[in-house]
Design a protein that fits this description.
5-stranded antiparallel β-sheet; elongated
Length: 160
């Protein structure tokens, strides 16, 4: 068995996306079976719950919003503090291998953030980026894009 860590952290590069979530109790953490082509992972977290993902919006992105006359705000339970926006984690699962180089990507899975997001508003037009999923294996954040409440694109690639 694996002695569970109370908190597991996966980093995403680019705009500074970081995800922190609570692992379930040790009785719910299982190691995936090893095979001849895939080394045994160090841990598997079959159900992620709690915590949040924070996106650090870089100065070029914020300058672009300002030049376009867009005002950022939060959607759902997201929080915006300065240039950092955080979204509650609502689910997902991960498998983690040692980062020693024996298997890549060494973190695989998906982290879900249903019901929260980022609004970009100019005049009567509001674009909402919400229901994010983070794929730590490719360091990308995807989300639904709505324009004035109507779905425009489902799970578009938004941030890295």
């Amino acid at each position: 068995g694996f002695a569970t860590a109370g908190l597991l952290v996966a980093g995403v590069t680019g705009l500074g996306v970081s995800t922190a979530y609570a692992a379930p109790s040790s009785s719910n953490v299982h190691l995936a079976a090893s095979s001849s082509t895939v080394p045994a992972p160090a841990a598997a977290v079959p159900e992620i719950f709690g915590g949040d993902t924070s996106v650090a919006l870089d100065s070029d992105f914020l300058a672009a919003l300002k030049s376009l006359g867009l005002t950022p705000s939060t959607e759902g339970k997201a929080t915006l503090t300065g240039s950092d926006i955080a979204f509650p984690i609502t689910g997902g699962s991960l498998v983690y291998w040692s980062p020693d180089g024996s298997y890549r990507p060494y973190v695989q899975g998906i982290v879900e953030h249903d019901g929260s997001g980022l609004n970009l508003t100019a005049g009567s037009t509001k674009v909402t980026l919400e229901n994010f999923t983070v794929n730590p294996g490719n360091s990308k954040l995807y989300g639904d894009v709505l324009v004035n409440g109507k779905m425009a694109v489902q799970q578009a690639y938004i941030f890295s």
